[in-house]
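User: Look at the shape:
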Amino acid sequence: MSAPDREYLLDGVSINGLPKVSLHDHLDGGLRPQTIVELADEIGLQLPRSDASELGRWFAEQSNAGSLVQYLKTFDVTVGVMQTRDGLARVAREFVEDLHADGVVYGEVRWAPEQHLQRGLSLDEAVDAVQSGIDQAVRAVEATGGYIRVGQLVSSLRHNPGRTREIAELAVRHRDSGVVGFDVAGPEAGFPASTMRTAFDYLAGEWFPVTVHAGEAAGLDSIASALLDGRALRLGHGVRIAEDLLVERQDDENTYVSLGLLAQWVKDREIALETSPSSNLQTGAIAQWGESLVEHPFDLLYQLGFRVTVNVDNRLMSDTSLSRELSLLTEAFAYRLDDLETFQLNAAAAAFLPIEEREELVDRIALGFDAV
């Protein structure tokens, strides 16, 4: 049984059944292996493994290289089968189904439409195809008495900055039909948000919310550029903000830490950190602190009062689910249900929704945790 299909317990309570919020979840990183096999067969795409189970293991093995660049190479396969309207719609529909099965009540799915034009789709047609799949799944969940809401985050690829303004305009064009925000993804080192400043100026003028991958494969300068040039309201991963923390001393009960100006700014303004524990280990994002989850700066950031959120990044590559990520954190840091609830409330507060709808989401989460 793969990790996403397992049940995870804490104090006898199913983590899977708790209401959860997913903010950092890539569409092309969440495909079912069997779907990849079937879609590849339809378009004649050769795969590294033809059996779905073996293909799933291949993704997990290839993703443990300790390098973001190597990690990203696995997406050549998933993006390859997401080049038709039917393919995109199916992947999006199953994506939402899997979120619902994992207890997610609100999710934001990010993806880069510019990567899905190889078989003749336009940018707008690609966005419409994904939305059709999302809508179909949401209706199916509601028909069974369930609840889920999902919004699109349209991503631009930072190594193709000349197209960022076009993608920003695409996102704004679809703001009333499912797109809730804008993201910048791809190789981080060497591509700061400042190289896309024109697009970010446009988005700011349109009052359109932005999250930027920063503090994963690059450090404090990248985070600063995301905030100053990108006007980011959230940081994709953001774990390397811990480089701006100085542990001054420790005793048996306490750790005394001072914050640099950037870290203090992120904390004081409650800029959400979209951490993805398993992915952060796989890509080497936390290598300077260690190679195991217990060495992840997540807990230090949490204890210091940063708005930490827990995410999967790419379920397929990390062979994970949001419930599994939460379970791993409870094992590493002895968290209890109250802590898991805090992580969900943090995510709800940072969701790209109107304030009234965020408050409704907070109430839904609180009721779900109170019921256990």
